[in-house]
Amino acid sequence: MNIIHVIEKIPFIEAEIFEHWGLPYMILLYLIDAFCTYRMCRQFGEPTWTSFIPFYNWIVVFRHCWNMTAFYQHVTLEVLGLVIPLFIEHFIRGEILTFIFTVLDLAVAFMAVKHAIEIGEFTLKSYGYDHHKYFWSIFIFDAVLLLTLKGRYLGNMSHETSD
Hints:
The protein has one domain. Helices cover 70% and strands 0% of the residues. It contains 5 helices and no strands. The longest helix is centred in the first third of the chain and has 42 residues, at 3-44. The protein is globular, with a radius of gyration of 18 Å.
């Protein structure tokens, strides 16, 4: 089995997981993220209850490890990643338009992955880790960083101005 076959099966595997374990799976992911953000908030000196409020916990992490412009970019990419496929599925008719919007969807997905890598790099730097050594943790930076590594928050290491 080559990589193309594996990639083709990913949507079906995800659909199978969500069909049988959708709500419990989402709750589990939320609880892991909330626990990790809780530990981050303690190190930031923020009130720990903020880690359990969806989206606001992202704002706290972005404000401390990077900046708010990155937060707005992240939310925009997330929304586009949800809206464009729905738009293609329900409103686009014709091969050319489908092709154009599919390319646009792939571009948004590429930018989202690039942005996730940058988020992970800046968060690892903020905790004093070499982002090259811990590259494997970039996509799930808070869970891996705070559940497996012993990090101490050093401050915003992005060298960018905060908004």
